[in-house]
Amino acid sequence: MKKIILFLCLSLFSMIAKSQSITEISKKIVEKYENYKDSTLKDRRFKHSDLQILITRLDSNFKVQNIGFSAEDRAINLISWGKGKKKILLWSQMHGNEPTATAAIFDIFRFLAAQDEFDSLRKKLHSELTLHFIPMLNPDGAEVFERRTRLGIDMNRDASRLQQPESMLLKQIRDTLNPDFGFNLHDQGREHSIGYSDQPATMSFLAPAYNYKKAINESRGNAMKLIAELHQLLSVYIGGNIGRYYDGFEPRAFGDNIQKWGTSTILIESGGRRGDPEKQYIRKMNFLALLHSFQSIASKNYAKFNSLQYNKIPSNGSSLKELKIRKINYLFNKRTYILDLLMDRLEIGYNQDRNFYYQGSVNDVGDLENLYFAYDEYNFAHLLAEDGKTFPQKMTSLEEIRNLNFRELYENGYTSVILETNDLSQIPLFSEFPVNILLNKSEKSNHLKPFSNPDLIFRDRNEKVRAVLINGFVCDLEKDLPSVIKNALLYR
After folding, report:
1. Cβ-based neighbour number of residue 176 at 10 Å
2. If you average pLDDT over residues 52-71, what whole number do you get?
């Protein structure tokens, strides 16, 4: 009996030590993340052509196959690494404007190709696993930074009919490889929160249901266990900002069907994070999550976790907007109204959708005291709001506008300037300055209502300007520079 107890204790100790070693290795790898980050992918709006260049630079340990073409004849690649019996399939950018994990995949390629202190791990992964990556499944959507395919179809609702060539390719590869695990890699909107709270769902996970009963078989159960393990690891880095995505069965969705077809499927959604508009930290967390998953699958470490731990991950909510200003004292027609204001910031693409500028838009106005939170929140109950005005002196060049004292303009209640010119060749799409530009016109509507984009001046009881709202950005003059307004607009 003593020998049995001793054996069990040693086995338990061995399991704990093994678990700790996997976690510690992952922590050490992420500490050196900058060594592996692909510096050519600096923001979210890279294109298919950018990735094709990187793919040609992969070394001979990577097998690159052109498995087909998109509707607009862009090549779709399958990149494979390793010789192990356990097969993993990862597909990213099924939606063209969801690129965070795509960038992380190219960081992983650099890690796998490196030679350093983690060589023993690479050797183990190479012998235990075969990794198959489809980095950009919807290159046509990525070209214009849009969710849907060239034909306007949401590819993630095409798993049954398989109308899209890209959808057919994913189904064909899944059936040919019959992978043990699949990673369905997406971005979710910044509005997603942890339950009903002001905390963004920076990353969300799901083991998709394979039927309406949300039954749990071995395949789905393994996905739940691995997600529980990832939640434990990532909580060290993003704390209470990890959510569990909505798990209703969607019979047209690839994740749900691939789960049904026998591959343990993990959905990863990259959401929002304060101070990370280009999602570079979230990209790093994808890198960490995927590399840790490879280790866990190779050693079957996920088997130590269970579905109860998975179900304790808080559910996703949808309670975040970009801006909320509470208790605005707004003067209209000689009467003061107390209003709350919610605003979104839309991204308007330009330069072939490689760049973008912001356009503010009112989401709602009224009594919003107990409705929604925001990335940027202000309580201006102590201030009086008035509509921004147009500076009467007309400008004749952008350089004149550049040399203006913007704080002085705000102090006098101005949020827009007039630019008079007949030379339209040098006129930009938007204002790079923290004031709106009215091109050859004298006024801008500031009507406060949904879908409008009002400019407001906030004064204290002594009529001193304390803050301004321009294009969905607030400049708190007591602590901010006007440059906090990322851009204003040009009105033609």
Report:
1. 11
2. 97
| Cα angle for residues 361, 364, 370 (degrees, 5° grid) | 135
Neighbours of 141 (CB within 10 A): 29
Which residues 6+ apart lie within 8 Å of 228 measured at CB? 302, 305, 306, 307, 309, 310, 313
Contact predicate 84/133, CB 8 Å: no
Tokens 């007309």 belong to which residue? 394
What is the distance between the alpha carbons of residues 82 and 114, in angstroms, rounded to a whole number?
Answer: 14
Find where tokens 């990862």 sit: 90
The DSSP symbol for 461 reads: T
Domain ranges of the chain: 25-317, 320-491
Q: Report the distance separating Cα 455 and Cα 481, nearest Å.
A: 17
Q: Which residue has the tokens 């992918």?
A: 41
Instruction: Provide the token pair at 209.
Output: 């249901």
Query: Tokens 């290159």 correspond to what residue?
Result: 139
- Give residue 425's pLDDT: 81
Lowest mean pLDDT among 14-18, 22-26, 238-242, 268-272: 14-18
Tokens of 81: 């690494």
Helices then strands, each counted (H, E), the chain: 12, 23
Q: Which residue, among 161, 82, 185, 194, has the nearest Cα to 128 in the 3D structure?
A: 82
- Tell me the pTM: 0.93
- Cβ density class 355-369: b for 16+ within 10 Å, e for less: ebbbbbbbbbbeebe
* Contact by Cβ (8 Å): 241, 193: no
The residues pairing with 326 across neighbouring beta strands, listed in sequence order, are 379
Per DSSP (E only), the strands in 123-236 are: 129-134, 181-187, 193-194, 203-206
The pair of structure tokens assigned to 408 is: 């002085």
pLDDT tens for 417-438 read 999 998 888 899 999 999 999 9
Q: CA–CA separation, 333 vs 182, rounded Å?
A: 60
Q: Are 174 and 89 in contact (CB under 8 A)?
A: yes
Per-residue tokens: 472:
């969905």
pLDDT tens sequence across 136-162: 999 999 999 999 999 999 999 999 999
pLDDT of residue 213: 96
* Residues paired with 63 in a beta bridge: 80
Q: 25-317 belongs to which CATH class?
A: alpha beta
Which residue, among 405, 406, 395, 388, has the nearest Cα to 443 in the 3D structure? 388
CA gap 301, 291 in Å, rounded: 13
H/E stretch holding 338 reads strand 335-350
Cα-based angle 452, 455, 458 (whole degrees, multiple of 5): 135
Cβ pair 350, 429 in contact under 8 A? yes
- Give the number of other CB atoms < 10 A from CB of residue 407: 14
Contact partners, residue 293, CB within 8 Å, separation at least 6: 88, 181, 183, 226, 230, 266
How many whole angstroms from its chain centre is CA 283? 9
